[in-house]
Fold this protein.
Amino acid sequence: MEKDKNFILGVYDDEDVLLHAVSEVRASGVKIHEVFTPYPVHGLEDVLGYKRSRLPIAAFLFGMLGTTLALTMQLYMMRFDWPMIIGGKDHAAIPDFIPVTFELTVLLAAFGMVGVFMVSSNLKPWAQPRIFDLRSTDDKHIMAIDIANNTSMEVAKIQEILKSSGATEVNNKSFE
Amino acid sequence: MQVTSSVREPLVTGGKTYHDVTHDVSRQVEGKPTLLWFLAFLTAAGTLAIGLIAVTATVWEGIGMWGLNKTVGWAWDITNFVWWVGIGHAGTLISAVLLLFRQKWRTSINRAAEAMTIFAVICAAMFPVLHMGRPWLGAYWALPLPNTFGSLWVNFNSPLLWDVFAISTYFSVSLVFWYIGLIPDFATIRDRATGLRKVIYGALSFGWDGAAKTWMRYESVSLILAGLATPLVLSVHTIVSFDFATSVIPGWHTTIFPPYFVAGAIFSGFAMVLTLMIITRKVFKLEDYITMTHIELMNIVIIITGSIVGIAYITEFFIAWYSGVEAEQYAFINRATGPYWWAYWSMMTCNVISPQLFWVKKIRTSIIATFALSIVVNIGMWFERFVIIVTSLHRDYLPSSWAMFYPSITDVGVYLFTFGLFFTLFFLFAKFFPVINMAEVKSVLKSTSAKVRK
């Protein structure tokens, strides 16, 4: 069977039922493709076994880049390229350079991190998302299970596991 | 879905389900604009058009069209600039600082407050740009661009340049923060829509599908952006106050300015959020989402920041006397008793006395009183900036050059222009964007009101 085409969907109404269901379904040996929720459900990434996002590291690195660029730029312009005496201050008046350095650090950290987020999550205006169930952006939590990834188990058995874990509906969904 | 708790007031009233949240908020976007909306929008756009005449006159003829003179070289433009920037502080404060402090009530108001922030900063930026006189050359004066004068760079020792960086960073980071929050809600509207609306909101939603992994990253991004935006929001008005504090003008040369300006900014920003939210909740029937609890909590923030501002005024006066510097003492006596006494006492009444009324529970839980006082506060905050700027300048070191400032019709027109711009943008936002952050409201629907987690 081809991968990433035929799915069983478990539909859950409540976030707490969902959290328990994810643990139960995983414990029974079913591999979950992904869970789609209308709002961030805290703890879901833990029960799904996702590793912590490394986006904060990206933000830190971009921030450091901002600090370095800002200080280098100001020192180059004010101290080396065209030194001038302004208000009797030193050419390299480091305390005066701190506000701009701070702002550029924040600017690069924010934009860098958001850029990485957009790329890693494939968010772009022309992206065509695969919608498993239209209600997943309204009020239902959708657990998607790829049949091709769970060939060791009968489809009926998976549906049974979803039902007993508290799913209000169990549907099938196929993509072209 | 919604369970009521005996210990905690629910943040969303009316026993809403998740679907009700989607429906109540998306309804505004999907329905036809009402007559009331058209009237409001046309009024705002009309004001914008009238104000545009004054802006054109300023750019065409130069800033001689304004009421400035040799003694008072800064007046309405900078007053309005600082006023708008101050208003633009509430949105990011609500979304960033309150997120770090885990204040869940922010979820119903953060979207509109952030939109207001962005529009207020756009209005603020108009003034320094117009004051350049030849704004088409402005990029060379404001940004470190290579040029044919050497290159002769911009002056990184100047607080005015720090302002360029602070405000543009603040604007762009706030915009990104706001948009990231909008993406899941645009996806909600996309999934309810058909035809052209589906295409437009589909593009705006950036292909959001609500996967757990994306939500995990989204939460991580929100938290880090909040951590970055918190010092940023404090830095912006600090740097604005440096425009004055680093000069040697009596009345401006004060170390109290940075915290005092930041408190004043939050004060006026919250007042503006209240003004707008009281109208929005009424017009869009969102009383279950923006409840009396929200209004009361915002009023409490107004009492706190208003009191900080009041203490700052008194401290400033005391230090002027205690310093023993005659020029400094005169600047303050002149503020309170000189030809601009009415501006000073308007400021004192509106900013120091009127917010103290909110200590009375009846007043801070009254919609009419809150609405009236929120406008009074913003009038007071406008006078604060006017008092600081004009009264410190108009009687300078040489009595022969003492002067008064009288605004010209162009000054008034440019100020009107920014009002038109602000409300035009806000009404467009209110009609075409979800005014409440649906995803975040849904996330607090249960945890704040459920008896226990299962």
Remarks:
- Strands of chain A lie at 6-12, 34-36, 141-146, 169-174.
- The two ends of chain A are 13 Å apart (CA to CA).
